[in-house]
Design a protein that fits this description.
The chain contains 24 helices and 17 strands. It is an alpha+beta fold and 675 residues long.
């Protein structure tokens, strides 16, 4: 009889089924050999192919599960056992169906193996991953080096120089055949001998959970049934159909920003493209297209649905390709693009490998011009997330987040926490309309490209794809005052929630008006760090009241310029009120006496070092360039000077301003008394 465990918990958000196919671990003496490395790659091949199969099943109409996959590895701390782990997220009340589909797929793999098409796609993907590791050989972080040495000590994994490793990887990956992989897994996965099965489900009235006898009956049924091999009919096609006319638009004007090292192209269709070539990471390019407006331009109902546009588009695919089909078309490439909608801006972001820059630009073009909204994909998302959020209603952390948003923003419908109701109200028509209202035209967008690109190579591609995006002089994307404001005065929401592990959660927020300037952001940063240091001593060390206090400060530009300083922590009922008092008292001390000199000095030293680290990454440069165009603020040239100019008196003055503003929002969640 197979070891089977059925587990229910009222605070679980989703049902799941896991199945471990156990086997003896590879002897340590083989781990640092060609045999051991070959086995690792066989595991990688199988993991990639099985995950693709599970993903494809999950996206089918009326899929038997919401998502799933496979992984390889050890079992806990036991050094003598390994396992192939199959896992699925089940529809609520349908754990038996999810297990049947998962077990069937394992049997399909065991009986028939994989076919040549999916094997070759996996090979392309794995080779591309290994190549990227080699290309980025000079960009390895200290943490990555440390992990390699730990793996060498713990598991005997070899440490090679990058050139040797790349040659070794190519040799092994190219030498493996689909027959070898199939034969290996037929030996490694023996379901009648070595399965461990775990079923987990929320404990909720009316939710059925598969029993041990149900699981055993399904195993017997599948074992006795005929299972067809996996069918693969994929044909690789162009991402953009050949019938699409790309008229393009030439670069009319070129400018150069010497300080930031970026070139600005203005295309004939009015689109601006800012490019910063960089060799900070050899195999990386990042793209961002931004426009002001975002959800502020939409009605309340549309703004609520806009939160899910990215998710729905990712599940639906793009152009003529479903998400599953698109993934197959992109095999062996490193390229992505997706839309994003914030409160006051909307965007298209993308990235990947410089060698795939044309594909990245193609995907950006399609995200503007050919969104795909499929009702079956939306139905799939509803099946996944509606039960999830219903179950989250009993999760204390979710309850706290919901109450905090409701209190801070005075129950404004534009700042509500995601819920089952919101998901259930999503409609294809509304989502398509949102996309059309924000992404039909591209001339209000500014495009940023940072990474290892050559300007002469990039320019004609930009002209071809970005230059073919629709533009209109009559459309103006701009921020609209949506009326969202944080609560003013003293507001307290002290409530109780049922929980199995009693705790008190506290969120204390101070807010008020402030100029959105670089200097004010630095002052607020130093204040949050000073408070963090004080709370570490007074609350954690002296009182032992919590494992840690989180302090966050931010300054918003829209809809009005304002700051928010938030202090949050978990504690027990006996100390909660006292610790809230300490939070207020420490802020008062800084307002009266200023921050400790050593706190300011340490914070400045850290931020000076962090400044250099930020500009060691393409993402840091992208952020700096966007800041220049959005605010006229040159992070590279101005930040250190601003940091040096800020004094303890500036921090003290801001603390006093916060107290004078007297906008204090306190949200406390306590455990309900169980009678």
């Amino acid at each position: 009889m197979e070891p089977i465990s059925i587990f229910t918990d009222a605070e679980l958000s989703q049902s799941s089924v896991m199945m471990f196919a156990r086997r003896d671990a590879m002897p340590k003496e083989y781990q640092n050999t060609a045999i051991g490395i070959s086995v690792d790659y066989i595991n990688t091949f199988v993991t990639v192919m099985m995950n693709n199969r599970f993903d494809e099943i999950a996206k089918q109409a009326d899929a038997p599960f919401l998502g799933g996959g496979m992984s390889e590895g050890g079992i806990g701390v036991c050094p003598t056992l390994e396992a192939t782990n199959f896992y699925v997220t089940a529809h609520e009340g349908r754990t038996d169906e999810a297990f049947r589909a998962m077990y069937t797929e394992m049997e399909r793999m065991r009986r028939h193996g994989f076919n040549v098409g999916e094997f070759e796609r996996a090979k392309m993907e794995i080779l591309r991953w290994a190549e990227r590791q080699y290309t980025n050989r000079n960009d390895v972080t200290n943490n990555e080096y440390a992990e390699r040495y730990l793996d060498h000590i713990k598991y005997g994994y070899p440490i090679m120089d990058a050139e040797t490793e790349w040659q070794y990887d190519q040799t092994i990956i190219n030498s493996l055949t689909v027959e070898q992989v199939n034969e290996a897994y037929a030996q490694m996965v023996r379901p009648n001998e070595n399965l461990v099965i775990l079923v987990r489900s929320p404990r909720r009235e009316g939710v059925e959970v598969a029993s041990e006898s149900d699981i055993m009956a399904i195993i017997a049924e599948v074992d006795a049934s005929e299972i067809e091999p996996y069918a693969d009919n994929t044909i690789i096609e162009p991402i953009i159909e050949p019938t699409v006319k790309l008229n393009g638009s030439m670069v009319e004007r070129t400018a150069y920003n010497e300080s930031l090292g970026c070139t600005e192209w203005t295309l004939k269709n009015g689109i601006t493209v800012v490019v910063r070539p960089s060799t900070l990471k050899a195999d990386e390019v990042m793209l961002m297209a931004k426009s002001e407006g975002g959800k502020s331009m939409l009605s309340v109902n549309d703004a609520q649905q806009a939160d899910y546009l990215t998710l729905v588009m990712q599940e639906s695919g793009i152009g003529k390709f479903s998400a599953t089909e698109l993934n197959k078309q992109l095999t062996g490439k490193s390229a992505y693009a997706m839309v994003g909608i914030g409160e006051y801006e909307h965007s298209v972001s993308g990235g990947g490998s410089p060698r795939d820059i044309e594909t990245i630009l193609q995907l950006v073009y399609l995200n503007f011009t050919s969104p795909r909204f499929d009702q079956s994909d939306l139905d799939y998302l509803k099946q996944m997330y509606v039960p999830y959020f219903r179950n989250m209603e009993s999760n204390p952390d979710y309850i706290m987040a919901k109450e905090f948003n409701r209190t801070l923003y005075q129950n404004n419908p534009r700042r509500q926490t995601a819920s089952a109701e919101h998901i259930d109200q999503l409609s294809i028509e509304t989502l398509a309309r949102i996309h059309s209202s924000l992404f039909t035209y591209a001339d209000d967008f500014r495009f940023y490209i940072v990474g290892n690109v050559d300007l002469d190579t990039l320019k004609p591609l930009v002209e071809k794809y970005l230059g073919s995006l629709p533009t209109s002089n009559t459309v103006d994307y701009a921020v609209v005052d949506d009326g969202v404001r944080m609560a003013e005065g003293g507001v307290t929401n002290d409530f109780c929630a049922s929980m199995y592990q009693p705790k008190v959660s506290v969120n204390l927020t101070y807010s008020g008006s402030i100029e959105n300037s670089a200097k004010n952001r630095v002052i607020l940063d130093l204040l949050t760090r000073a408070l963090d240091s004080r709370y570490m001593v007074s609350i954690r060390e002296e009182k032992g009241g919590t494992y840690g206090v989180r302090v966050n400060g931010s300054i918003m530009k829209y809809p009005v310029e304002q700051y928010a300083l938030t202090v949050s922590f978990d504690t027990n009922e006996q100390m909660a009120d006292e610790l809230v008092g300490i939070c207020d008292a420490e802020l008062r001390k800084i307002a009266d006496d200023g921050p400790l000199a050593e706190d300011v000095a340490k914070s400045k030293e850290f931020l000076q070092k962090n400044y250099a680290n930020v500009l060691d990454y393409n993402g840091g440069w992208l952020s700096a360039i966007v800041q220049w165009y959005d605010e006229g603020y040159n992070y590279k040239d101005e930040y250190l000077g601003i940091l040096e100019s800020v004094t303890a008196e500036d921090v003290k003055a801001l603390a006093q301003q916060i107290l004078d503003d007297d906008n204090r929002i306190l949200v406390v969640m306590r455990p309900a008394v169980v009678e």
